[in-house]
Each structure stands twice: as structure tokens, then as C-alpha cells.
């Protein structure tokens, strides 16, 4: 109020503002709602979600990142929790559901503490101390994993619970082979693994190709379906008659002039093909247009030829075969040619795929995904994507921890011991952090139809003797997860702790929300209407005929 008793507005009174405990409760409720959406998908016995977009397309999955990405979420705090899943998907490729469930549990425990009189700042400090300690304990629990067998186990664990679990051994081996093939200087760039879909086949026919697969076939149907040890020319220039830059006219007075003109044009086209033949190539991939006469000329000499290959595929072809794309066909020599063990076409009339197999030292490789329907292939693609990213993490970092809730349980027990050494109200927050970690094995047990109280009690007791004890959902017993081959990359666990705790502390530090009023269209002031401008008034309508 000013001195005259009139109210003074420092913010737009039309804005919606929520303060204090109400704002915090609202934000925590939104975070818990997001966690509850994906909670039932966690673990080997998790359920799937059916997502239907506005066009009616259906996606059936239990992948947390996919579910949250495809949902239309508007609440700002809920979006922050979705970012946790997206962050983990980008950095580690797995553990997205666990991270969201963990974040929701952190905020739920914090809400209980705040209701008991603990200040949010104290909870934030305790959570930060707990997160640092948790990362430290996870790193101590990690064991080296360099052997191919351990890589396969980690990849297989990431597939567990998905629709493609029946083929987990096949998928895990394929993904590990693909990552090992592109691994170089301690890094594995997954952009060099090309996923090719083949709807209508069998999932068990999914294969790893040490080379490249493209959705192209030879222009001529009579081209050989197989070429052993092909020499491959990559042409990044048009192999057709060049058009003039400016409009031009050619006056022809006799039939012989027409014949001479056509012969000259054909000679220029065949000259391009002769450069390829002299270089020793018997397979040509052109990124631009290729005249049918050139294709027929090459086919008559047993040379595979295709055109309009995508630039991305041309780069993959170069990485896989060792060839170099040339923009001036006259510069093509034997040195620029790529090589493979086998070129193979799988064609159905004008459609199909071309496989370049057994490319020694290939920097790009392919995985051909096969399934009876599009939904099956899409599910398989998501499983392969997770397995590839997990294999990448293990190959790059070389460290894994026990899965099945074993590592979370061990870290939770360590945090409880650590809490008593901290003292003050922060120890209450650290203990709450430990309880939030236990929500992971508790949710796995709940989704498997097991008694959650007995499960947690048994796991705690088992960890007195074995720090790698986790939940076997088939028997309900606590067993050594490392011996069972249930392992997760260390990076997944560490990044989950960091992302979850940071998101939770950001929410807890908010004590006021100011939401702008949504309007479909801004009000236009009268002086800015079109009718007030000279020359822009609406024309008068003549109503007389």
C-alpha cells in the first residue's frame, strides 16, 4: 500500500502465483505423478504402456524414456523430471525408469521431513552429502568388465523385461559385436552403427553385418545378385548429361545432325562409365543422378550400379569399405576404390536392400532388425538401442556393478551408517536418501507380485554376508547377482544418482511459482489495427448488381 492507501502492484495481477508450502506441495505432487506413471514398468516383470498419438499411431513399450518423451506433459516440475530421464538416456542409455522412480521417492521422503519441521535447505544439504557418498560407494562396488562375456551379460540385463526378452542372447551378442567393431581409441561412437528395419521376417533372423546395408538395389534387374570381393566406386557427381546453366537453342537442319548430336551425347556418357571400368570397379554407388544408358552400359560389363544414394549412406559406405567419394569422375583411380568380401542384393522387383559384407576394418557396421509386424520391429529397435548404449558404456568405462537392486541396497545400508556420523538434522535427510534408494528393489518386487516387506528385510539380512545380493524375481530369493550375470554399467548408476538428486534439490529450493496467464491471441491496441493505416482499410462492397 502506498501512503494514500492505494494498492501497488509489483507484478501483473492477472498472473497466477503460488507461494510457500502450497508451491512445494504442488511441485512434489507433480513429480510423484510422473514417477507413478512409469513405476509399474520397472524390473523384469514390469508392465507395458500403450501410447496413442493424435494420428492414431500406437506405441507399446515399457521404456521409461520413450513413455515420458511421447507424453504431452505441461506442468513445469513434471517436465524437470522428464529431463532426468532424457539426460540419462543421452549419457548412459539405460536406467531411465529407475532414475525417475528414485527422483520421485526423494521428493516424497523430503515432503515427510518438511512436514515434521525440517527446513528444505537442510534437506537439500543432506541430499547433497548423501549423493556424494552414494557415488563413492558405487565406485567401490564396481568390478572390471573387459571380457566379451561380461559385455554380453550387461547388454542382456538391459533387455530383460522388454518384449524382445525371448531373444535377449541373440540381441546382446549382436550389439556387443557391433560396439566392439567400431570401438577405437577408447570410444565407441554409435552413429557408426546403422539400424536397418526389415518388416515381415523373423526376429531370430536379426543379424549383425560387418559392413553396410542400404535401401537400394541395382538399376538393372539383370545385375548380378552377388559379387565376391567387389571393388567399389563412390561417385559424388551426376552421371548424366549436364544441363546448360542458361537457356540455349540448338538449330538442326538435317537428320544427320540429330544423329551426330545423339552420338556425341552418348559418347560423353559412355566416357564416364569408361573411367569407372578403367579404375577396376565392378560396383558403383552414385549420390546423384545416373542416366539409364550409363547403367545399361555398366550392366553389359557385369558392373553393379545404383543412383541417388543418400549422403549419409555415402559416408557410411566410405567408412565401411575404405573408399573415397570422388566429385570429379576423371580423378577416379584404383586408390579411391573401396573393398568388401561380398556384395549381395536382396531384391523384390524394384525394391530391396544391398548388403556389403565382410568389410575388413570397417568403421561403420549395420544391424538388420527383422520382425513379423511393424510394432514388433519397433520394439526390437528400442531394445537394441538400449543394449547398444549399455555395451558402449561398459566398453568405454570397463566397470560394472551388480543389478537386481543389489547395488542400491548396499549403498542404502552404507548411507545409514554414514548418516549417524554426520549428526544434526542433515542425518535425517541422508537416511531419507537411503530409503529412496531402497524404493528401486521394493518396486521391482512389487511389480513381480512379491511381498515388498519380506523382500526388503531378506535383502538387508543377506547383505550382511554378500554385498552383491539382489532380488531374483523368479524365486523371490536374495541371490548373488554377479554370479547370475545380472549386471549394470557403473555409469548408469552414478548418473542416475547425480541426475535424480540434482532434480530433487532444484524442486525443493522453489518456494514460489509465478505462472503467466495463457491467451490464444494478444490484444491489439486500437491504434495498431489495420483499418487505421492509410491504404489498408477494408474495401467497400458493392451490393448492387
TrEMBL record:
Biased composition (Basic and acidic residues): 520-531
Region (Disordered): 520-545
InterPro entries assigned to the protein according to its UniProt record, in alphabetical order: Chaperone_TCP-1 (IPR017998), Chaperonin_TCP-1_CS (IPR002194), Cpn60/GroEL/TCP-1 (IPR002423), GroEL-like_apical_dom_sf (IPR027409), GROEL-like_equatorial_sf (IPR027413), TCP-1-like_intermed_sf (IPR027410), TCP-1_chaperonin (IPR053374), thermosome_alpha (IPR054827)
GO molecular function, one term: ATP-dependent protein folding chaperone
Alphabetical UniProt keywords: ATP-binding, Chaperone, Nucleotide-binding, Stress response
Superkingdom of origin: Archaea
Family stated for the protein in its record: Belongs to the TCP-1 chaperonin family.
Full protein name: Heat shock protein 60 family chaperone GroEL
Organism: Methanosarcina mazei WWM610
Amino acid at each position: 500500500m502506498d501512503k494514500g492507501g492505494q494498492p501497488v502492484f509489483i507484478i501483473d495481477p492477472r498472473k497466477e502465483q503460488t507461494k510457500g508450502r502450497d508451491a512445494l506441495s504442488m511441485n512434489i505432487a507433480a513429480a510423484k505423478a510422473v514417477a507413478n506413471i512409469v513405476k509399474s514398468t520397472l524390473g523384469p516383470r514390469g508392465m507395458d504402456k500403450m501410447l496413442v498419438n493424435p494420428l492414431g499411431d500406437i506405441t507399446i513399450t515399457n521404456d521409461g524414456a520413450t513413455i515420458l518423451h511421447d507424453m504431452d506433459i505441461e506442468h513445469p516440475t513434471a517436465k524437470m523430471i522428464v529431463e532426468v530421464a532424457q539426460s540419462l538416456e543421452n549419457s548412459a542409455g539405460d536406467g531411465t525408469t529407475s532414475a525417475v522412480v528414485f527422483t520421485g521417492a526423494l521428493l516424497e521422503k523430503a515432503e515427510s521431513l518438511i512436514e515434521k519441521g525440517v527446513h528444505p535447505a537442510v534437506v537439500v544439504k543432506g541430499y547433497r552429502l548423501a549423493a556424494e557418498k552414494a557415488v563413492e560407494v558405487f565406485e567401490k562396488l564396481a568390478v572390471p568388465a573387459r571380457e566379451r562375456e561380461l559385455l554380453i551379460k550387461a547388454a542382456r540385463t538391459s533387455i530383460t523385461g522388454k518384449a524382445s526378452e525371448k531373444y535377449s542372447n541373440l540381441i546382446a551378442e549382436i550389439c556387443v559385436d557391433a560396439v566392439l567393431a567400431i570401438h577405437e581409441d577408447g570410444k565407441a561412437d554409435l552413429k557408426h552403427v546403422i539400424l536397418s528395419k526389415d518388416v515381415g521376417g523373423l526376429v531370430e533372423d536379426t543379424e549383425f553385418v560387418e559392413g553396410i546395408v542400404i535401401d537400394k538395389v541395382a538399376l538393372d534387374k539383370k545385375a548380378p545378385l552377388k559379387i565376391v570381393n567387389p571393388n567399389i566406386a563412390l561417385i559424388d557427381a551426376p552421371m548424366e548429361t549436364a544441363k546448360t546453366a542458361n537457356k540455349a537453342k540448338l538449330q538442326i537442319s538435317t537428320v544427320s545432325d540429330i544423329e551426330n548430336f545423339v552420338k556425341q551425347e552418348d559418347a560423353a556418357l559412355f566416357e564416364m562409365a569408361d573411367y569407372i571400368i578403367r579404375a577396376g570397379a565392378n560396383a558403383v554407388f552414385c549420390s546423384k543422378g545416373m542416366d539409364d544408358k550409363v547403367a545399361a552400359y555398366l550392366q553389359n560389363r557385369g558392373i553393379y550400379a545404383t543412383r541417388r544414394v543418400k549422403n549419409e549412406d555415402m559416408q557410411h559406405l566410405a567408412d565401411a569399405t575404405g573408399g573415397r567419394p570422388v566429385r570429379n569422375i576423371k580423378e577416379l583411380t584404383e586408390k579411391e576404390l573401396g573393398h568388401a568380401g561380398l556384395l549381395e542384393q536382396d531384391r523384390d522387383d524394384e525394391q530391396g536392400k544391398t548388403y556389403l559384407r565382410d568389410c575388413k576394418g570397417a568403421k561403420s557396421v549395420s544391424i538388420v532388425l527383422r520382425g513379423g509386424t511393424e510394432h514388433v520391429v519397433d520394439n526390437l529397435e528400442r531394445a537394441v538401442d538400449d543394449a547398444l548404449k549399455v555395451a558402449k558404456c561398459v566398453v568405454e568405462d570397463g566397470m560394472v556393478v551388480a543389478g537386481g537392486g543389489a547395488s542400491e541396497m548396499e549403498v542404502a545400508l552404507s548411507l545409514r551408517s554414514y548418516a549417524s556420523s554426520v549428526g544434526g538434522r542433515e542425518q535425517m535427510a541422508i537416511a531419507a536418501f537411503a530409503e529412496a534408494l531402497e524404493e528401486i528393489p521394493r518396486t521391482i518386487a512389487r511389480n513381480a507380485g512379491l511381498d515388498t516387506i519380506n523382500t526388503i528385510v531378506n535383502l538387508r539380512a543377506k547383505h550382511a554376508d554378500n554385498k552383491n545380493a539382489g532380488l531374483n524375481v523368479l524365486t523371490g530369493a536374495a541371490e548373488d547377482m554377479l554370479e547370475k550375470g545380472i549386471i549394470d554399467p557403473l555409469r548408469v548408476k552414478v548418473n542416475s544418482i547425480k541426475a535424480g538428486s540434482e532434480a530433487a534439490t532444484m524442486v525443493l529450493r522453489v518456494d514460489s511459482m509465478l505462472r503467466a496467464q495463457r491467451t490464444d491471441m494478444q490484444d491489439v491496441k486500437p491504434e495498431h489495427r489495420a483499418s487505421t493505416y492509410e491504404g489498408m482499410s477494408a474495401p467497400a462492397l458493392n451490393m448492387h448488381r
